[in-house]
Amino acid sequence: MSLEDKITNLFKRIPKVEQGQRVVLGIDGLSRSGKTSIVRNIEQHIQEKNILACVLHMDDYIVDRDKRYNTGYEEWHEYYNLQWDVEWLKEKLFKKLKDASELQLLTYDNSSDSQKLHTVKIPDTCLIIIEGVFLQRKEWKNYFDFMIYLNCSREERFNRENVDTQNKIEKFQKRYWKAEDYYMETVSPIELADLVINN
Fold first, then answer.
1. I want to staple 82 with a disulfide (CB 3.0 to 4.6 A). Which of 68, 75, 131, 142 is the partner?
2. Where is the Phosphoribulokinase/uridine kinase domain (predicted)?
3. Per-residue DSSP letter, 125
4. Radius of gyration of the chain (CA)
5. Which residues pair with 22 in a beta bridge?
6. What is the DSSP string of 11-78?
7. DSSP tag of 174
8. What is residue 154's predicted lDDT score, i.e. its pLDDT?
9. Sequence-separated (6 or more) residues with CB below 8 Å from residue 154
10. Which of 49-63, 96-110, 164-178 has the lowest mean pLDDT?
11. What CATH number belongs to 3-198?
12. CA-based nearest residue to 61, from 141, 162, 147, 133
């Protein structure tokens, strides 16, 4: 089945966006599993149906480097627990998704390695799409109306990285892969998701 067919079938399953309502769709998956690509396809599909979308990428809301590197914790712990201010995002983003007309979010700027306050306006009637890793962690999972998990092998995902990134395999071993294993073992995102897409 093509990705286009999968998107069409997806919209038969997720809650319909009724006038005056917001539906929160999560796109969960580990790094390089294809989350951004599927979001683009969903956006194109709903534009054709005249449905407004509000897309949030969790990587836009990571914290400054000194809060997530060289903290004294193991590297995998830094990535899973300190990459985002999990509780702050719960209060300022997730809890307000259904009611607030706008969100005031601290957005990470890579060039200055700092967060800057950014306003996100949310239409009264829209599909809110949130994509990122670890979306089904206990602090956030209950704020979604429908959750998709993109399942992709570690080997396939790693092969999608550029050569320079692949040469830093020790960082993957100590930081990313251990955090991913922790997520898979403690949260079981495949079992929790409403829909699993093998990508």
1. 68
2. 24-160
3. S
4. 17
5. 126
6. TTTSPP--TT-EEEEEEEE-TTSSHHHHHHHHHHHHHHTT--EEEEEGGGGBPPGGGTSSSSS-HHHI
7. I
8. 78
9. 30, 177, 180
10. 164-178
11. 3.40.50.300
12. 133
- pLDDT score recorded for residue 77: 98
Q: In the 8-state DSSP scheme, what is residue 134?
A: T
Closest Cα partner for 172 from 58, 31, 27? 31
d(CA 150, CA 7): 13
For the chain, the domains span 3-198
Single-letter amino acid code for the residue at 71: T
pLDDT tens-digit map of 62-107? 999 999 999 999 999 999 999 999 999 999 999 999 999 999 999 9
pTM listed for this prediction: 0.92
Which amino acid makes up residue 44? Answer: Q
Instruction: Answer for the pair 189, 183: CB distance below 8 angstroms, yes or no.
Output: yes
Q: Which residue matches tokens 């997530």?
A: 68
